[in-house]
Design goal:
It contains 3 helices and 5 strands. By secondary structure, the chain is of the alpha/beta class.
């Protein structure tokens, strides 16, 4: 994760399971509480995400909005992109 002032950039790689989602959630909630309000998560190198990973993204999206911030997902492709569409989360997130 790269943090610069009120912005954070995260590149997710390979697969995201329960343990990974928990670590990501904890790390991002910490930086949000420290004043980061603009978060970009790059999914271009992510090949799989489970329901806990999707839940983490929902949690981070909600928290950034509570802080008048924004979460942007970029580069979604393959299974992660399909899951975002099937769960209709593509209507919830800002996806570029």
């Amino acid at each position: 994760m790269n943090v610069n002032e009120n912005r954070a950039m995260v590149l997710l790689k390979d697969k995201m399971y329960v343990h990974d989602a928990s670590l990501l959630r904890d790390d991002l909630l910490t930086v949000i509480d420290q004043g980061v309000t603009k978060i970009t998560i790059d999914l271009s190198a992510l090949s799989y995400i489970d329901s806990s990973g999707l839940g983490t993204l929902v949690t981070i999206n909600k928290r950034t909005k509570e802080k008048n911030g924004r979460l942007v997902l970029t580069g979604a492709q393959g299974l992660p992109s399909e899951l975002l569409k099937r769960t209709r989360l593509d209507r919830v997130f800002t996806i570029e």
